[in-house]
Amino acid sequence: MEAATRLYYRYFPEKLLGEVLSKRWSDNFVPAFAVLLVIGFFLARDPGFFSLASLTETSRQLAEFSIVVVAMGIVLLAGGLDLSVGSVFALANITALICMNLLGWPVWATAAATLAVGALCGAVNGFLIGYLRIRAFLTTLVTLIIIRSIVDIILLRYAVAISAVFPDSDFWFFLGEGNLLGLPVSFLVAIAVIVIWHVVLTRARFGWHLTAVGGGRRSAYNAGLNVKRTVFLTYVWSGALAAGAGLFFAARLGSAGSDTGVGLEIAALTAAVLGGNSLGGGRGSVAKSVLGAIVVLILTDSMVRIGISGGISSAILGGVLLLVVAIDVRWLKNRHKILNKVYVSPSYFKLPDMPETDAGSGSPYALNDRLRSVSLIGQGEIEGPEDVIFDRADNLYCPNRHGDIVRFFGPDYKKWEIFAHIGGHPLGMAFDRDDNLNVCVGGMGLYRITPDRKVEKLTDETNRSFLSVIDDSRLKLADDLDIAPDGRIFFSEATIRYDMHDWAYDALESRGNGRLICYDPRDGATRTVLRNLQFPNGVCMAGDGESFLFAETWGCRINRYWFEGQKKGRCETVVPNLPGYPDNINRASDGNFWVALVGMRSPALDLALRKPGLRKRMATRIAKDEWLFPNINTGCVLKFTPQGKVLESMWDLGGVNHPMVTSMREHKGYLYLGGLYNDRIGRLALDGADPDWTSQDFYWGGKNGSR
């Protein structure tokens, strides 16, 4: 039964489903499924629709229609609505034909005039809606009627004259009927428009502003965005794009009729909403708009080919719009419900039996009160000193939760200052050979502070895993680091699935969500060296120039990884079964190593690790502060040999002076203690320790860097 449980929670794709649903492109499931369904249905009914000749002609229509749908999608994304795109399309068509057929203008002047007419129509909409704050539905409905009336007036006067002239321009014909690289010119232009707007909406400042305005205009205004101008520009672009589509329509057909563009706004709105663009604004994309355009065009053209009349086809299109909107709303609502249920995915994990810790048992882990006598530094003046470190002048550094690096001046460590402000939550620290302070910052990556206090970002990303669904190239929780003799920085990323303040979820999962990463300052390259680790932490060079030690917090073990030498690439467990959860590791003056235990194991929690279903229900039904959780109120520090033998332990059973220990640093006969949730730094005198030993000089040599 236990083996079956282990296999089920290792291979059942619940974690994969959660990661897929967390991606924004999962919004496209409905439109993508609709595309496949429509294509499959009409392929079965009319295989000739997908012939080469049919696809070539359809691609010209798709190009024009897609541009209009993109225009509609831009306005929807900003929280607006443009019912005038069909009328602008018709006006652009008649404008282009007058310029070419009657005025004899060159193609470039015709295109400029046509786009200008469309942009002017959009500017009228944008001014009324953006600056005068008239409702979009009412405004564009009125401009639809007005522009349509203008088109009808022009047609009454010039329709016959337009149809009597055929422009003598090869380039005009090329725009409407020509091919380039085997594809229609209009189709290639539409692809370019789609790509450009995709980049604008996802990478450019205007696209971010547009999405912010659509998500909440008041919030966007409070954030300092020019909401009125953004709304105005969306309608200008909508009008210009609709005019561009009308230009290609004029070049392709060369005729003007009273029915040109009639119902186009409804078809474009159907396609945009079908593609997943929200009517409420703030959600959508160009890709979604194009998917919707493909569905609507295939649907309408295929209904004509199989003999469905115009009235019935319009009714079907309206029914599709209602159905898709209903499905999409339900999908979005239930998608988040499903995501909340499946994203946290506990695994089956069995720890070895906990080692003996009873006082007087003779175990190296035996309980004692050796940390009760620590003196305190900066009590009540700092918050969250997760790590501690010393420079060559005996000054003490620690991070705080406000994103600062605090420096306490030796020798009494009573006076302090903000050495540098980085942001985020600084965690592990290490000085390099040139006295630069290198820092892992949760949520930001790896940073460096020069001796003159200049803050520099070293890296915030690594190579992406080939089979990873989520984008694991960005660093979520860079945790601890150490520096190899050649200058390479090896650091841990505790989890790729959760942010700094959600690390408890990673503890609940107890999966291998972490990794070890190497940054090489010689070429600025960053690469992942070891994956699938259980909250890796506490990176510390072993002293041989070929390997380093690191902790796996949820695995309750300490490992050794070789980055050079005959064992390069190998990882071996050094301390396999600890009574608590290891955090930072640092060197001791006698050649051994110190490790902090951030929390203690308990029989109930060890049992819960073998019950993934229990932890799953706990995550979804119980408040986080009531979960089974490691006891982080009892601090402990261990000393162990390079071979993994634990020599001694130090406890603070009452949790009075130093209730949590996440790091320690030996310096000139004292042990200094840090704690992520503490408001103090602990200082403990070590019996028999070298009063002149410092980790900085031991590892890098004297002030000139000689070893």
Strand content: 15-25%
Number of strands: 26
Order of strands, widest sheet: 3-26-25-24
Low-confidence parts, pLDDT < 50 over ≥5 residues? Answer: none
Helix content: 40-55%
Assign the CATH topology of the largest domain: ABC transporter involved in vitamin B12 uptake, BtuC
How is the biggest beta sheet arranged? Answer: 4 strands, antiparallel
The termini sit apart by: 57 Å
Helix/strand-derived class?
alpha+beta
What report would you give on this structure?
The chain is 42% helix and 20% strand. It has 2 domains: 2-340, Orthogonal Bundle (ABC transporter involved in vitamin B12 uptake, BtuC), CATH 1.10.3470; 375-700, TolB, C-terminal domain (Neuraminidase, 6 Propeller), CATH 2.120.10. 45% of the residues are buried. The protein has 19 helices and 26 strands. The protein has 707 residues and is an alpha+beta fold. A hairpin with a 5-residue loop joins strand 4 and strand 5.
What key phrases describe this protein's structure?
four-stranded antiparallel sheet; alpha+beta; 19 helices; 707 residues; 2 domains; elongated; Neuraminidase; 42% helix; ABC transporter involved in vitamin B12 uptake, BtuC
Layout of strands and helices, then pairs:
Layout: H1 2-11, H2 14-22, H3 29-45, H4 52-77, H5 85-102, H6 107-131, H7 136-163, H8 170-177, E1 179-180, E2 183-184, H9 185-203, H10 205-215, H11 217-222, H12 227-253, H13 264-274, H14 286-305, H15 310-342, E3 375-377, E4 389-390, E5 396-399, E6 404-408, E7 416-421, E8 425-431, E9 437-442, E10 445-449, E11 455-459, E12 478-483, E13 489-493, H16 503-509, E14 514-520, E15 525-533, E16 536-541, E17 547-552, E18 557-562, E19 571-575, E20 580-587, E21 593-600, H17 603-608, H18 612-621, E22 635-640, E23 646-652, E24 663-667, E25 670-674, E26 681-685, H19 695-700
Antiparallel strand pairs: 1-2, 3-26, 4-5, 5-6, 6-7, 8-9, 9-10, 10-11, 12-13, 13-14, 14-15, 16-17, 17-18, 18-19, 20-21, 21-22, 22-23, 24-25, 25-26
Helix pairs in contact: 2-15, 3-14, 4-9, 4-12, 4-13, 4-14, 5-6, 5-7, 5-12, 5-13, 6-7, 6-12, 8-12, 9-10, 10-12, 13-14, 13-15, 14-15
